[in-house]
Design goal:
about 120 residues, 4 strands, about 20% strand
């Protein structure tokens, strides 16, 4: 689902741009969405400390989605490793305005992302 930027053939991309622009122009800006995900390393400490602690890899994945005009901002999707992650202790996620899913391997959240995007049709 993710492609490393160094492995991308730039010529193929440049040749596909005119075709992509032509296809996009067939749609209203309200119907064109941007979806992106990021990782929040909630236990990561500053990298300028004197200590030599091991770097924490604990994270949650957060995905954001909005249409081109910004008039339809979907609830962010939060994928954590546990149903009730420690970083959300005493927080009712249903009241925060996010969709929450959990998976023991939070980096394998593509199943939840597919469901999130499929729910657009409902």
């Amino acid at each position: 689902m993710c492609v490393e930027s160094g492995s991308l053939n730039i010529t193929v991309v440049e040749n596909a741009i005119p075709s992509l622009i032509s296809k996009i122009q067939q749609f209203d800006l309200d119907d064109i969405y941007n979806f992106d995900e990021t990782a929040l390393f909630y236990k990561l400490e500053p990298d300028t400390t004197l200590g030599t602690k091991r770097i924490s890899g604990q994270r949650i994945t957060i995905a954001f989605c909005t249409n081109s005009r910004g008039s339809d901002k979907r609830k962010p999707l939060v994928i954590a490793k546990f149903a009730n992650p420690g970083c959300f202790k005493n927080v009712n996620l249903s009241n925060v305005g996010v969709q929450h899913s959990y998976n023991k391997k939070s980096v394998d959240g593509y199943i939840y992302i597919s469901k999130y995007l499929t729910d657009f049709d409902k």
